[in-house]
């Protein structure tokens, strides 16, 4: 098997040397758009170099726009310690509802492989990422990266090996880039807040300037000018008088190569159920105390006497279902608080640590328009430190449901008709953190954090958001008015309520495991309970 892989690689690499049959000239086809001299056309237009230093990166774009075509570029990437840098080759239109087809090459520390990040946007919506490691060193020689884009599919190729096919599935309601002409863009820029190991490894500016080199640009596409396509006549008007890309699809050999690659080089194809922390979350505090692991499938937070740590979702949401699997701090966790919540407004899961052998307290709360005081607290019916368990928030316009391993523990209904505020107008991000709260968290603050046990660690995995993404720029939701475009295209949460089985489970939890209910605290609310307390808990 290994020998057959080596044979395949050697055959392909020999072929890749002649893959670009008719290379264009950068002087004719492109213009440098930014970088103040950091982008340089070389060798009479046969090559182009981009550089990055602490002040700026650089980039160029094609002079023409295209609607479909084949786009080849040979690139040699930043060598050695390229951590924090991103080298790009992509197609894009402009505007909020733009289309985009991406090759992004994420640098790494010396000796570690580049990550090839691919994505497809249509009408401003992406979240179609696949990532790969390469089977060669892309910094020592030029290799050919190709995008084939036609009405039926998009094919990403490396040295003529197809690594990804994105088919047109408009028939099942998935948007496809087919109406907006796009230019070719390339750039080299700093993205050390996310690019390498989720932002944990920063750009080493002592290595600057960083340089990537492009050559053998080849564009065989339909040029669009003044709204008209050069291919409209279906004759021989495209750039190279030959258009096999217009019906390009994988033959048996190509399908075998994609299968081979999926075994050998695919590193981050997001699972159907879970999002990826590299792609969907940003570490917000704690320095190195927050670590993304296992290719983005797990995120560990730690707490010591100096600081805790935390992360947040990259997107904001207005309604959705949010799942997270957590394994809480084991042993003596007194004084610590592990969280999973959405804000502002705010919908809270907080897990209050305890002394060894004593149970965690699960603290829930709901804030709207800055007002909370809706606390309910529970014990769990299992040890949440020995294995992962799933904690979920379902938030729609009628109710909020808190679930543990899909068992409802609390329902907070919309009682605006009674004058009770409900979170429905403010988009929220998902947040998670591990921090010290020994002034109140454990037995009212009587038990303090034992720092001799530090660092404390909690682990998160299988972060899943099936929700309506909110755009602050346009004040619009991805769900619009259709209720058909939540992130994972499953809208059951939008009308979710408890059935008979769910109501029975809720009764069981609240009878056996609820330890505090704001609706029963007469000492605290001596002037009377909030109006919803008189209504059904379901």
UniProtKB/TrEMBL annotation:
Residues 20-214, 236-460 form the GH16 domain. Residues 1-22 form the signal peptide. PROSITE patterns: GH16_1, GH16_2. One of its GO terms (cellular component) is apoplast. Gene3D superfamilies: 2.60.120.200. It holds the Pfam family XET_C. It catalyses: breaks a beta-(1->4) bond in the backbone of a xyloglucan and transfers the xyloglucanyl segment on to O-4 of the non-reducing terminal glucose residue of an acceptor, which can be a xyloglucan or an oligosaccharide of xyloglucan. The active site is at residues 346, 350. GO terms for molecular function: hydrolase activity, hydrolyzing O-glycosyl compounds; xyloglucan:xyloglucosyl transferase activity. Its EC number is 2.4.1.207. Keywords: Disulfide bond, Glycoprotein, Glycosidase, Hydrolase, Signal, Transferase. Belongs to the glycosyl hydrolase 16 family. XTH group 1 subfamily. This is xyloglucan:xyloglucosyl transferase. It comes from Solanum verrucosum.
């Amino acid at each position: 098997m290994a020998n057959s892989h080596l044979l395949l690689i050697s055959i392909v690499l020999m072929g890749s040397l002649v893959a670009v049959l008719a290379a264009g000239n950068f002087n004719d086809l492109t213009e440098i758009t930014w970088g103040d001299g950091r982008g340089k056309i070389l060798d009479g237009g046969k090559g182009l170099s981009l550089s990055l230093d602490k002040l700026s990166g650089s980039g160029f774009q094609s002079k023409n726009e295209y609607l479909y075509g084949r786009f080849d570029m040979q690139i040699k990437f930043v060598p050695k310690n390229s951590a924090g840098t991103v080298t790009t080759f992509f197609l894009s239109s402009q505007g909020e509802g733009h289309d985009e087809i991406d090759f992004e090459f994420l640098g790494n520390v010396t000796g570690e492989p580049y990550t090839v990040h691919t994505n497809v946007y249509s009408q401003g919506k992406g979240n179609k990422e696949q990532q790969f490691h390469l089977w060669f060193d892309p910094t020592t020689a030029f290799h050919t990266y190709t995008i084939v884009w036609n009405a039926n599919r998009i094919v990403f190729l490396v040295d003529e090996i197809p690594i990804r096919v994105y088919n047109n599935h408009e028939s099942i309601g998935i948007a496809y880039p087919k109406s907006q002409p796009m230019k070719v863009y390339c750039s080299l820029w700093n993205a050390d807040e996310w690019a390498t190991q989720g932002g944990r490894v920063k750009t080493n500016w002592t290595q600057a300037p960083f340089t990537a080199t492009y050559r053998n640009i080849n564009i065989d596409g339909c040029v669009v000018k003044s709204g008209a396509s050069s291919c409209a006549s279906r004759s021989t008007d495209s750039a190279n008088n030959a258009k096999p890309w217009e019906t390009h699809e994988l033959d048996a050999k190509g399908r075998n190569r994609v299968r081979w690659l999926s075994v050998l080089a695919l590193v981050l194809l997001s699972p159907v159920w879970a999002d990826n922390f590299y792609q969907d979350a940003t570490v917000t505090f704690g320095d190195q105390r927050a670590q993304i692991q296992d290719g983005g499938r797990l995120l560990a937070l730690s707490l010591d006497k100096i600081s805790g740590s935390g992360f947040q979702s990259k997107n904001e949401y207005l309604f959705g279902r949010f799942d997270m699997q957590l394994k809480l701090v084991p042993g003596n966790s007194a004084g610590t608080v592990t969280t999973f919540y959405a804000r502002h407004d705010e919908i809270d899961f907080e897990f209050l640590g305890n002394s060894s052998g004593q149970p965690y307290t699960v603290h829930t709360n709901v804030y709207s328009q800055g007002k909370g005081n809706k606390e309910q607290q529970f014990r769990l019916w299992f040890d949440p430190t020995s294995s992962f368990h799933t904690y979920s928030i379902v938030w729609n316009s009628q109710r909020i449901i808190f679930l543990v391993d899909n068992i409802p523990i609390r329902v907070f209904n919309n009682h605006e008709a009674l004058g009770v505020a409900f979170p429905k107008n403010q988009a929220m991000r998902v947040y998670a953190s591990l921090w010290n709260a020994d002034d109140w968290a454990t037995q009212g603050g009587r038990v303090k954090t034992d720092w001799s046990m530090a660092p404390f660690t909690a682990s998160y995995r299988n972060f899943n958001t099936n929700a309506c993404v909110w755009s602050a720029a346009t004040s619009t939701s991805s769900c619009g008015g259709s209720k058909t475009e939540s992130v994972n295209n499953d809208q059951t949460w939008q009308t979710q309520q408890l059935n008979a089985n769910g109501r029975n489970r809720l009764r069981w939890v609240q009878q056996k495991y609820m330890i505090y209910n704001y609706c029963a605290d007469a000492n605290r609310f001596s002037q009377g309970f909030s109006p919803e307390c008189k209504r059904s808990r379901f």
